[in-house]
């Protein structure tokens, strides 16, 4: 595959400016010849969803010494969505070709995407009409981000090579694409391949642990873990032979799940519209 032309890339995350995942991603993209600007939270902002900072000022500053010298990096006091908005409005002189978020430390599979700051940062790019990708390493303890970063570089090149088949804003026709990518915690040689997947459903056992602070005040700590994947409901518009992201990652595949922010339930819109509703 011939080398791709350099791209103008905006990179963010929810794990914060000091996270190894974003450093590995940004540096690997820069080493591949792309122009990389990082704008991400100044501390961990995991599970913030698509929250915005509306009732206090957002502060931001250039950060040096963390990333490759070719990478321009900003730390922002806001949420991941704030960071992308701020970058597009106040930092970047030119509109980026892609918004990339991650590499998250831990999977973003199934219903995780509803809470994920990583996914929300990429979704913010989509809202602005920019093709966007979220990358996650499907393990909370491993620090082996390099295979995921290597795939990000190669995947961007493949997306551009297949632009005649994809609706990429500014490249092809139609709406911009948003892809949620999860990479298994395996060596590059042991990854089974790449699967296009549908979003799965997962159930968590959750509990609030009751504790006391040094002054005797009671507080609660939310804890939980995944216990199973829920049965997938019938989806008339998606063939069931497409595996869920949860299934494919367990089989050692990189999962690529196309997502969108329009949450219409088309099947029920059609079925309910056939009923007679009274005022």
SSE arrangement:
Elements: E1 8-12, H1 20-31, E2 35-41, E3 60-63, E4 72-76, H2 80-91, E5 98-105, H3 117-127, E6 132-137, H4 146-161, E7 178-183, E8 193-196, E9 202-212, E10 218-229, H5 245-250, E11 253-258, H6 266-273
Parallel strand pairs: 1-2, 1-5, 2-4, 5-6, 6-7, 8-11
Antiparallel strand pairs: 3-4, 7-11, 9-10
Number of strands: 11
How many angstroms does the end-to-end distance come to?
A: 62 Å
Briefly, what CATH class?
Alpha Beta
So, the CATH homologous superfamily? Survival protein SurE-like phosphatase/nucleotidase
Q: How many structural domains?
A: 1
What kind of sheet is the major sheet? 9 strands, mixed
Fraction of residues in β-strands: 25-35%
Order of helices and strands: EHEEEHEHEHEEEEHEH
Low-pLDDT segments: none
Helix coverage percent: 10-25%
Report the radius of gyration as a whole number of Å.
Answer: 20 Å
CATH fold descriptor: Stationary-phase Survival Protein Sure Homolog, Chain: A
- Helix segment tally: 6
Please describe what this structure looks like.
The chain is of the alpha/beta class and 279 residues long. The protein has one domain (8-197, 237-266): Stationary-phase Survival Protein Sure Homolog, Chain: A. The protein contains 6 helices and 11 strands. The chain has helices at 20-31, 80-91, 117-127, 146-161, 245-250, 266-273; strands spanning 8-12, 35-41, 60-63, 72-76, 98-105, 132-137, 178-183, 193-196, 202-212, 218-229, 253-258. It has a 9-stranded mixed beta sheet, sandwiched between helices. A two-stranded antiparallel sheet has the order 9-10. Helix 1 (20-31) links the parallel strand 1 (8-12) and strand 2. The longest helix has 16 residues, at 146-161. It is globular, with a radius of gyration of 20 Å.
């Amino acid at each position: 595959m011939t080398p791709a032309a350099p791209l103008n890339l905006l990179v963010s995350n929810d794990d914060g400016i000091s996270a190894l995942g974003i450093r590995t991603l940004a540096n690997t993209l820069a080493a591949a010849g792309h122009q990389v600007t990082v704008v991400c939270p100044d501390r961990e902002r995991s599970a913030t969803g698509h929250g915005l900072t509306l009732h206090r000022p957002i502060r931001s500053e250039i950060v040096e010494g963390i990333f490759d010298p070719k990478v321009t990096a900003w730390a922002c006091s806001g949420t991941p969505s704030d960071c992308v908005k701020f970058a597009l409005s106040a930092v970047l002189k030119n509109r980026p070709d892609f918004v990339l978020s991650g590499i998250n430390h831990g999977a973003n599979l199934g219903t995780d995407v509803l809470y994920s700051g990583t996914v929300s940062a990429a979704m913010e790019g989509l809202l602005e009409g920019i093709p966007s990708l979220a990358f996650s390493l499907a393990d909370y303890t491993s620090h082996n981000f390099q295979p995921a970063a290597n795939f990000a570089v190669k995947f961007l090149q493949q997306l551009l090579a297949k632009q005649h088949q994809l609706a990429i804003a500014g490249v092809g026709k139609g709406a911009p694409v948003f892809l949620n990518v999860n990479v298994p915690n395996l060596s590059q040689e042991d990854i089974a391949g790449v699967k296009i997947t549908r979003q799965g459903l997962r159930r968590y056992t959750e509990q609030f642990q009751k504790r006391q602070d040094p002054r005797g005040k009671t507080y609660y700590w939310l804890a939980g873990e995944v216990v199973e994947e829920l049965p997938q409901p019938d989806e008339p518009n998606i063939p069931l032979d497409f595996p869920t992201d949860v299934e494919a990652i367990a089989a050692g595949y990189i999962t690529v799940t196309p997502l969108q922010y329009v949450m219409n339930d088309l099947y029920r819109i059609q079925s309910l519209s056939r009923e007679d509703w009274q005022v």
